[in-house]
Amino acid sequence: MSFDVPEDRRYLESHEWVRPDDGTARVGITDFAQDELGDVVFVELPDEGEDVTAGEEFGVVESIKAVSDIYAPVSGTVAAVNERLFDEPELVNEDPFGDGWMLEIELTDEDELEDLLSPDEYADQIA
Amino acid sequence: MTLRSPPLSEAHEAADARFTDFGGWEMPVEFASIREEHAAVRSSAGKFDVSHMGQVAVFGSDAAALTQRLTTNDVTALDYGEAQYGAITDEDGVMLDDTVVYRLPETEHDDFLFVPNAGHDGEMTERWEDHCEEWGLDAAVTNRTTEYAMIAIQGPDAPELLAEQTNANLGELDRFDIGGGAVAGVSSLVARTGYTGERGFEILCPSESAVTVWNAIECQPCGLGARDTLRLEMGFLLSGQDFHPEDEPRNPYEAGIGRTVKLDTEFVGRDALERVDAEGVSEKLVGVELIDRGIPRHGYEVESPDGDPLGHVTSGTMSPTLGEPIALAYLPVEYSEPDRSVRVVVRGEPKKARTRTPPFLDR
């Protein structure tokens, strides 16, 4: 089975993606991660204005069969939360890189992006 | 330890199933998605490989007497071709397992067949053999778990689907009846039993012919994931989780299956259970529905609205049919009434919940 690994973002070994855009970054979990989890039925995310730290957990995603922590790829302040996921958690399965995004983070240190996996490196990890 | 594989293993691999270790067996947990498989069973039909369930045959003039004295229900009430649900308890009335006991059709060689849970077949065979010897009874006990495959067809369309493939007279099978017949040309036993709350059947066939039977019945293959959500919506027990002799020692009254205890029969644990019946239980397995957002999971604490500890969740999930987070939890008996306010502690956060009387789904 092959999974999407879009070129325009960076990845964590724990299967989160981050797409930087002019000082902010959108964050979600990967196609591989949503497939491993199965039917996502619940997502717990921080509130706007909260701080998150690279490498630390910021929320939880639950499928019917499993509970998984989600880790922040970068540090910063939560600028937006995808509130649609509270009523439609299945978006994480249906469109993990699009409508299933989770947070937008205002970056405190753009250099942190350099520490993350490139699309090729992540594709190798899940191959 | 090497995992045991069901005879349908290769078919499941070819269907790209995901596998899990369950009771020492490597079983398919998911084929498509749990939600899809669950919905298929509720709306049309699904097939399950339940070959990990044990099959233990009991034969001989004392087969009924032996099984009677090791299960809580009244085995002697069974006619040929009938089955019943019961518990297997120790001297203290603690549930070691729950089981379906089949009295086989008269033409079968074996008299009784009972179905212990995954991984319990060896232990239960020994239990029957040891007691048979101890009590000087005339019975032979055979562990047929590897000889038989067991396939469940469940859902409103199950009778029609199976009827296309069998010469067994399904119309004559009432709930908990078992009869002989060919399924896809394979000599089998067909029982009107299952664990999903839907109409359905369980087929026992020789392991070497399991693929023929499995392939002949064309409907959604389902894994243990959907089996778990389906049984939980009905409030059915999961061995090892809702009761366990060491981790969750419970008697049948606490576990909500007191109806299967027939105190006018003699069985191991009877005296202890008579005392429990007379004195009443202090805790019972209660249905819980979360009102706040969150999902109750095995082991989560349940407390009163004031924060006093009450008990813990034994099984919990997001119900695919209801779209509501549901759970089973052992709580003080006064909480066995519906609509009592409680809280489930989800990752340290108390979430509002209320009690419900299982089943969660009317069937």
Automatic annotation (TrEMBL), chain A:
Q: Does the keyword RNA-binding apply?
A: no
Residues annotated with N6-lipoyllysine modification = K65
Q: Which residues form the Lipoyl-binding domain?
A: 24-106
Q: Identify the PROSITE patterns for this entry.
A: BIOTINYL_LIPOYL, LIPOYL
**One Pfam family per UniProt:** GCV_H
One GO cellular component term: cytoplasm
Query: Required cofactors, per record?
Result: (R)-lipoate
- InterPro entries according to UniProt: 2-oxoA_DH_lipoyl-BS (IPR003016), Biotin_lipoyl (IPR000089), GCV_H (IPR002930), GCV_H/Fam206 (IPR033753), GCV_H_sub (IPR017453), Single_hybrid_motif (IPR011053)
**Keywords per UniProt:** Lipoyl
Family the entry assigns: Belongs to the GcvH family.
Q: What is this protein called?
A: Probable glycine cleavage system H protein
TrEMBL record, chain B:
Q: Per UniProt, where does substrate bind? A: E202
The GCVT N-terminal domain extends over: 9-264
Q: Per its UniProt entry, which superkingdom is the organism in? A: Archaea
MF terms in GO: aminomethyltransferase activity; transaminase activity
Q: Which UniProt keywords apply?
A: Aminotransferase, Transferase
The record ties this protein, via Gene3D superfamilies, to: Aminomethyltransferase beta-barrel domains, Aminomethyltransferase fragment, Probable tRNA modification gtpase trme, domain 1
Q: Which InterPro entries match?
A: GcvT, GcvT/YgfZ/DmdA, GcvT/YgfZ_C, GcvT_bac, GcvT_C, GCVT_N, TrmE/GcvT-like
Gene Ontology process terms (BP): glycine decarboxylation via glycine cleavage system
Q: Which Pfam families match?
A: GCV_T (PF01571), GCV_T_C (PF08669)
State how it assembles.
Answer: The glycine cleavage system is composed of four proteins: P, T, L and H.
State the family named in the UniProt similarity comment for this chain: Belongs to the GcvT family.
Q: What is this protein's function?
A: The glycine cleavage system catalyzes the degradation of glycine.
Under the heading PANTHER family, the entry gives: AMINOMETHYLTRANSFERASE, AMINOMETHYLTRANSFERASE, MITOCHONDRIAL
Name the chain's protein.
Probable aminomethyltransferase
Give the gene name. Answer: gcvT
